[in-house]
Amino acid sequence: MGMDKKLHFLAAETDDAQDALSGLIAHYGQAPMDEADIIVPLGGDGFLLECLHAHHDKGKAFYGVNKGSEGFLLNKSISDRLSDRIPKSHAITLHALNMTTTTVDGTIHEAFAFNEVALFRQTHQAANLEITVDGIKRIERLVADGVMVATPAGSTAYNLSAHGPILPLHAGLLALTPISPYRPRRWSGALLPQSTDVHIKILDPKKRPVGATADFTEIRDVAEVRIRQDNSIKVKLLFDPDHALEERIMREQFRSD
Which option is the CATH number for 97-230: 3.40.50.300, 1.10.3720.10, 3.10.310.40, 2.60.200.30? Predict the structure, then answer.
């Protein structure tokens, strides 16, 4: 194979990803998950995120191969060149966000996210949210469809669609971005140190119910949400030198299309 790393392949259910899975296993073999050095997900960004959630605690590096559409967090599609590219790849460490929610009935839930934690209105009525940052109340009432806290890796996903800023990976920042804000009309969000503790209280939670999501985990009818970086949950992503995530994030900031 030309390298001493053991690989374990995972694939999305699409025909393209499944075909690639068969070919790569035939070429490189399939190491058991526990014995592998590197996990190689084949699919899109969503599938990679699923793999990170499912296997982040196994201490493996992830080298994702794009068999989806955008593939922002993935390397370009290749077939028999892994033995050349993986030894030259660059590693990026991603830290997760912890989301602790308290629902209207007092139940406490915890979840984590590598992309973002987002709050959304559950009905036709706008959410009314009070935002406290590191113990200081910064917004007494945000009237909006919702609000999110995004990591640098997640800043190019839903955060970007909500007109939030793109964050370089090593900036040490989080993006606090409103979703379709109505009041205060001119507030476009904030950049926060990654050590920030964000507390969001839902005003009128029974009349204006709000749900909260941490990547794939959704909790409905929340009364308050606490968001902070969880340094105990992290993953290592591998990127080709000509496809480094830092450079992709930089290029994204200068796109004109």
Answer: 2.60.200.30
